[in-house]
Amino acid sequence: MAGITAADALRRFDPRAQITIVTHEATPFYSRPGLMYYMMGRLKEWDLRIARDGFYRNLGIELKYDTALRVAPDQDLLELASGGRLPFDRLLIATGSKSRRMDVPGADLDGIHFMYTLTDCKGIVSRSRRGMKAVVVGGGLLGAELAEVWRDCGLRVVQLVRDAWYFPRGLSEPQGRIVEASMRRHGVELHLEEEVAEFRGQGVVSKVIAQTGKEFDADVVGLTIGVEPNVDLARASGLAIGRGVLVDEKLRASRPGIYAAGDCAEIQRPGGGRTVIEQLWYSADKQGRAAARCMCADVQPYDPGLFHNSAMFFDVDYVALGAARATEPGQAEETVVSRDGRAARNFVHRSGLVVGIASVGANDRADILMPMVQDGVNLEVAKGELKGRRWPSAR
Amino acid sequence: MAQRALAKKIGYPILAAALIAFFFWQERRTDPMWLGRDKSFWYETLYLAFVLGMGVPVLIKWRRSRYFTIRTISCMASQLVWGYLVIYFILPLSWTTVTYPGGRSSLTPFAQNLWPLEIYGLVVPRYFGFPPVVAGWFVYVVATSLVLMPVLVLRFGRAYCSWFCACGNLAETAGDPFRTQAPKGTRWVRFEWVISAFVLFAILATVFLAFNLPGQKVWQEGWGFWVKFIFSSVIGLGLYPLLGNRPWCRYFCPWAGLFGALGKLGKAGIAANNNCMGCGLCNKHCDMGIDIRRNALRGEITKTTSCVYCGACVAVCPRNVLRVL
User: Fold this and answer.
1) How would you label A138-150 residue by residue, b for 16+ Cβ within 10 Å and e otherwise?
2) Domain ranges in chain A with CATH number 3.30.390.30
3) Are strands A258-260 and A91-93 parallel, antiparallel or unpaired?
4) How much is the average pLDDT of B96-105?
5) Domain A316-387: what homologous superfamily?
6) Could you tell me which of A223, A390, B61, B127 has the fewest CB atoms within 10 Å of its CB?
7) CB-closest option in A52, A366, A394 to B275
8) Is pLDDT at A307 greater than 70 in this prediction?
C-alpha cells in the first residue's frame, strides 16, 4: 500500500523519474481489507485488485516480480533473489508487516494458518469445510474478521482471547462487552483470558491446549495475534532497526538515499520520546505519500496526523479517532453507553478536552468525529453534540 | 442458499424467455386485440407480475438498507400504478386505435414512454392532427421527456432509472441477483460510447417518421426490431446472467444517452468519508460497473453519467463509507 501510493505520488511530483516496484506477490496490489470477503466468496480475486487495467503502464511504472534480498553495502544497488541488481538513486522500503508467530510447541503443525496475504487466505479457504471445528487465537480486529469468515462458511468457531475483554487496546470494558455479545450472538464461542500453551496433532493440528489446561478440538487454527514490521531487507542491508526500520521524521533510514514507509517503518520523533509504528491501511497511504515527497527532496516532515481506524465486529461497527484509550499520563476516559446497551462511545480527554473518541455500534462517521478530536472540544460539548445523533441505526 | 441458486439458474431463464417471446409476438401481431384486450395488456401483466413477484425477495435480501427498501417499493408501486393501473384502468378513455404508416398499429396511449425511448411520442400530431386526446399525450410526452425529467436528472442524477423507470423496475427486482455480473474495468466503461449511436438512431428514426421521408418504414422496423427487440429485450433482459442487470441502461438507453450527463452538473453523486479500506464490495455490487472504490479511497465524490443511484454500494459497504447525495 505504502509502496504503490508512494509510486503514484512520485509520478506526480516527478514526471520523468524512472520508477520500479519490486514485489514478490504474484497478484499486484490487492486490497487486504477485502480478503475477508474473498474468503466468504463474496469477492473474486480480480475484484480485490486495486491496480488493474494498465495501472502501472499508465503511470509509467515498471513492475518486477522478484524478492529484494539486500542493498549492496558499498554502492546503491539492490540485490534481487533472481541474481539481478538494480541501481537506484532513492530506495523506498515498504515491506509491510508479517504475521506475528507463536513460540509454542506444535506451532508449525499443518492446519495452522496466518491471515495476512492472499496466499494465506487461499490456504484457509482450501482447508475450511462446513461443520469443521475452528479455533481462532487472538482477540483483535483480524481475529474478529476470521471468526466471521468461518462462521459464514458454517464452521464451529472457538476464539481464545488473552485479555480480560475483547481488544482492550482499542475498546474500553463496556465496549468490549458489546463486541463480545455481538460475537457470541453470531455463534462464536469466546474464551477470555486464555492463552495457548501448545498445539497437538499428528502432522495436522487436532487439539489446542490452553495455559489453563483447557483443551479445544481443532480441525483448523487461525493465528491472528498481530503483525510485526517486516525488516528482513533492512536487516540484511545493515540499516538501523528497532522494532521496525528506524527512520527520522522525514522517513529517512540510517543510510542516505534509503527511505522506509508504511507498516515496516518505525518513526523517531525529534527530541527522542516514543517511536511510532503505524500498522494501518490508512497510515500506509499517508506515509507513502509523505515518503514520495521526502524522496523528491522536499523538506516537509511526515505528520502522522490524527490516528484513525475503523472496523466491523460482525454487525457492530467501530470507529476510532485520536486516542482510543487513555494510555498517556494526564489522560482520562469516560464511556457513555446507549440506553439499550448496544452502543458505546469512549471519550478520552485531557483535563476535560477531548483527545480521542472510539465509538462502537453507534454508526458514527469519521468525518463527524474528526473535527471534535482535532479541535479538542470540551468533553461535555462533545457528548452533547453526539447525543442527538441516532444510536444504533439501520442504514 | 441452494434455493436461491436454483431460482437463479432455472427460474430466471424461464422468465426471460417468456417475456421475450411475449414481446416478440406482440410486436409482430398486426391485430391490436387479443382475448378482448389490447395485446400489450398481456405483456404488461406478465411484466408487472415479475416486478412484484421478484421484488419481494429483493426486499428481504436488502432489508437492512432503508434506502434500498424504499426504492424497491417505489419500483414496485410505480410499475403497478403508472405502468399498469393508470394505463389500463384509469385512462382507457384516452385510447384510440392508431395505425402508423408502415403498418404498426396500437391501442395503447400513443406514448406512455419518454421520447426517445419510444420514437412515436413526438410524431403523433403529424399523423393524427390535434384532437384533444392526441394533443394531451403530445404535451405530456414533450413535457416529461424534454423538461420535467431533465430537471429531475439535473438534481438527482439518473436516480429515476432505479426508482421508477419501467426498465429499471425490472432490472432492480428480477435482475437484482445478477447485479454483481456487470462487466467491470475501464475497457467496459470506455465502451459506453455506444449509447450515442442509439441516440443518433432514435433521432434519425424520429426525423424520418416526422417528415414521412422515403424509407421511414425501414427506420420504424429497424427501431422496432433492433432497438426494442434485440437490444432492450433479448440483450437487455435475456443476458442478465452474463452482462449484469443493466446492459440496456448502461449501453443502449437513448434517453439516458441524451440527458444522463446532466446529472454531472448537479450535486448528485456518491460521497465518501475517509473510512474506506478499499475492500471492493461496492465495485462488485455496482450494476453499472463504476469504479467507486477508486474515488472512495481518496475520499472523493463519485460523479458519473452512468450511476443510477440504486444504493447497492452504500448498502454493502462494511464501513459505512458511502452516502447518496
Assistant:
1) bbbbbbbbbbbbb
2) 316-387
3) parallel
4) 62
5) FAD/NAD-linked reductase, C-terminal dimerisation domain (3.30.390.30)
6) A390
7) A366
8) yes
Position B246: which residue type? R
CATH superfamily to which A2-97+228-295 belongs:
FAD/NAD(P)-binding domain (3.50.50.60)
Which residues of chain A have a CB within 8 Å of the CB of B320?
317, 363, 365, 395
Q: How far apart are CA A381 and CA A384, in angstroms?
A: 5
What domain range is B86 assigned to?
Answer: 2-324
Question: Which among A75, A117, A114, A88 has a CA at the least distance from the CA of A22?
Answer: A88
Cβ distance B297 to A52 less than 8 Å, yes or no, reads: no
For all residues of chain A together, what is the average pLDDT? 87
> Is A160:A207 a contact under the CB 8 Å cutoff?
no
| A31 contacts in chain B (CB < 8 Å) | 277-280, 293
In chain A, list all ranges with CATH 3.50.50.60: 2-97+228-295, 101-225
- Tell me the Cα Rg of chain A: 22
Tell me the pairing of strands A331-337 and A77-80. Answer: unpaired
Residue-wise pLDDT for A263-275, tens only, equals 999 988 877 677 8
**C-beta atoms of A43 and B67 within 8 A:** no
- What is the reported pTM? 0.82
Angle between helices B39-61 and B66-80 (to 10 degrees): 170
CB A164 within 8 A of CB A192: yes
* Coil vs helix vs strand at B270: strand
